[in-house]
Amino acid sequence: MLQTMSLDNTIVLDNGASSLKIGKTNTEFCSIFPNSIFRSKSERRKNFISNQIDACKDYSSLFYVLPFQKGYLLNWDVQRQVWDHVFGKDVLNLKCNESNIVITEPHFNFASIQEAINEIFFEEYEFQSILRTNSSTLSSHKYAADNPGEDCCLVVDCGYSFTHIVPYHKNNKIPEAVCRIDVGGKLLTNHLKEIISYRQLQVMDETYVMNQVKEDACYVSMNFNDDMKTCKLKGKDNTVLRDYVLPDYTQIKRGYIKSNPKPDSVSTKSQEQMIRLTVERFGVPEILFHPWDVGIPQMGLAEAIMHSVSKCPQDTQPHMLRNIVLTGGSCKFPNFKERLEREIRCLAPDHLDIYVTLPHNPITYSCEGGLHWSKTNEIREHWLTLEEYQEGGQAACARQFYDI
């Protein structure tokens, strides 16, 4: 059955806690959809499912209903609504019973969640076959395809709930060397909300807007102490200072950084509501490198990478350090790659080469890897068909998807 199975109609679903990245084998493009249901303050009776949020006219005080909690899929009712919407005729118009699907799950996922995924995709959506794996595995296949001759890579996945460091040798995960840091995009946004709310303006309910502020204005510092000194300077000498104009959803639909901030006042126009950003710009992303700054007793990113490499077979360690690939939305902060490369260089032995790769789009990188992998014959041995599931049930899934 596996040898004759057609892979022409395969869907890759990178099921992240913040967004769904979906691609089809007949296209090279991966679409991104919010993995959430939103309720708007201005339209209290209406729910916006996933990309329906684009139709919302006022993003202030959006209430999020998330299927993931602390990195794991727990709210199945919300997740089903999001899947039904995205698979439905208004979005992908997907014929599930004529398709195969590659779906990602978190590292260290619970068996009960894995079993529920199997049941939903086989028994309810009736996919022809499924492959359940981690997003970092798909990234590994993408990196191997882009860098022929390299047998090793270290995937650093800065996701919504966690940051994972996962080493691979010949596209096989080294489980004992996988590391996790409990810092992700959600924690960074929440920390920024707390800082702004304490110092300037109550924004604890403005998750959507403050996430945009984080993406627009924050960066990774190359010299934290020097940037701190710069923040204390006055006038034009303070090159860190920025004024961010908040949206009012009448005249201003999306917030933006105001050019040439005035040193003596936060707002120059009465109709503009602004927040002033200084230390926050680089202090928030700094948590990735120093989690203990906010009370998380864990290693920073560079230390965790070196710890992960130390758990790999000794002959693979030099190859891991020169094949580090960054994925996930938090990798898009300016200077992220350069800072990480420099910190690893300080910790690694002098005779080893260090090279960090930042893909053009680190958010969809794993989905693109799944699309490439799904077009190869190698993937056939990893599929589980509907017929095999009906015969072997959950035991067949446990055998087929063990640590892929």
Q: Describe the biggest sheet?
A: 6 strands, mixed
- Category from helices, strands and their pairing: alpha+beta
- In terms of per-residue confidence, which ranges show pLDDT below 50 for 5 or more consecutive residues? none
- CATH top level of the largest domain is Alpha Beta
Q: Kindly estimate the percentage of residues that lie in beta strands according to DSSP.
A: 15-25%
Indicate the overall shape: globular
CATH architecture of the largest domain, by name, is 2-Layer Sandwich
Relative helix content: 25-40%
Could you tell me the radius of gyration in angstroms? 22 Å
Q: What would you call the quaternary organization? A: single chain
CATH names the topology of the largest domain as Nucleotidyltransferase, domain 5
Taking the alpha carbons of the first and last residues, their distance comes to 21 Å
Query: How many domains comprise the coordinates?
Result: 3
Return the average pLDDT rounded to an integer: 92
**Helix segment count?**
12
Q: Report strand order across the widest sheet.
A: 3-2-1-9-10-20
CATH superfamily of the largest domain: ATPase, nucleotide binding domain
Say how many strands there are: 20
